[in-house]
Amino acid sequence: MNEHNILGAILAGGQSKRMGKDKLFLEIDNKKLIEYTVDKVKKYFKELIIITNKDNEFFSKNNLITVKDCIKGQLGPLVGILTAMKWAKENSTKYSWIATFPCDTPFFPEAIIKNFIKESEKKDSLILCASSHGRQHNIFGLWSLDLYDKLYNDLVNKKVRKVQDWTKENNIKNLEFKFEDYDPFFNINTNEDLEFARKLGTRIKNEKK
Question: Domains of the chain (ranges plus CATH)?
Answer without folding.
Answer: 6-207 (3.90.550.10)
